[in-house]
Amino acid sequence: MDLFDHICDASLLIFFPVLVVLGTNAKKFFIPVEILFLSVFTIRFFVKRSTLSLYTIWTIGLSLLALVSTTYAPNQTAAMRWAISVIQVVIFGNLLVPYFRDDKRNVHVFFLSFILSAVGLGFRLWMSAPPEQLMNTRLGESIGFNANFVGFIFAIAALINLYYVILEKRWIALPLFFVLSVIGLFSGSRKTMIILFVGIVLLSILSSRKPHTIFISMILSLLFVAGFLLISFQWEPLKNIIGYRIQIFLTTFTGQSIDASANERIEMIRLGIDMIKQKPFFGWGLHAFSDLEKFGVYSHNNYIEIAVSWGMFGLIWYYLFLGYVIIKGIGILLSRHRTSLVVFSVMMLLILCLDDFGRVRFYDEVSHILYALCYAIIVMHLPLRGIDIISLLIKPFQRFIHIKSLRQE
């Protein structure tokens, strides 16, 4: 089993960087790696007699919502593509929950894979264009990646390094935290800056237990935030990429200028709310916002997209689980079962829920793997309960044999 555990580690260390660095569209690379990952972790799921969890129930509900909503979606072909994506990502999550929950070491293997993914993505970006071009355009454009996705990867990888600095006292991770943070800012994504700022503050506060340490952590985290803002506004290359966008965004609220991007997002929310009012319970079906509204793209808001697609029933189902896990995690932080990994998990879930105001993630692979990670960490101290699939398959056979033996007697 030790050898097999190392095989599982290796498959994850291959699968996740390929997912992040090359993406699912690089099919000649991604599909073989995906098959390897699914094969290894499916075998692990059965060999380890992994039990069905609350996460499993939640994701079965998501899969049913996705499939049923395709039947009344305006574009059933596009809706089915999204439904398949939902099913794919929840399969990833269900295979990884037992892996993360079995051993804290496995969580750190995933952290390593995330950091390697960010480094690999940075290397691919570096090789894709001359440095002067990369310094004057939003990161991701040179390789056909969405800049917001690129910024998200660097921001989360930076926060993982900050976790090691603050909670594990591994100061060697501090330089990489700064490097990844600054690279993430070159994506020009304001959501990336918000993730970094909120993540720094939450990690600082949640890792503190006494009032005076919370105050000191707040001061230090605010200094970090001020430092990043100063770099964004004063360093010319970064100012051209994100400093100007932040300035325009802030002045929009004072009426001094108009941020076209922000106004478009606000208009999307308004149109989404109108659609929800028309079909509030079960929505319009997957992909409906893109098909029925003038923008022709998704709503850039996970709450709006889910409510339009699945109605309020789907929205409640989706966030009831995440809310439960967050509340459970906060309860653990106040108990004797508090661990540094639980601190990270609560911080991560809060960030993802905040980021949902500017991103659609219910069919995103990286996001669902993070959901699985946080859930597994928060329930890690609880005893394993439930029925594993092998038992479910064996029980009917055992019952048949028992009935047959009784008849023979």
TrEMBL record:
Subcellular location: Membrane
Transmembrane segments: 7-23, 29-47, 54-73, 79-97, 109-127, 147-164, 171-187, 193-208, 215-235, 307-327, 339-357, 369-394
A molecular function GO annotation: ligase activity
Membrane topology: Multi-pass membrane protein
InterPro entries: O-antigen_ligase-rel_domated, WaaL-like
This protein's UniProt keywords: Ligase, Membrane, Transmembrane, Transmembrane helix
A UniProt-annotated Pfam family: Wzy_C
Ranges for domain O-antigen ligase-related: 176-318
The protein's name in its UniProt record: O-antigen ligase family protein
Protein species of origin: Sphaerochaeta associata
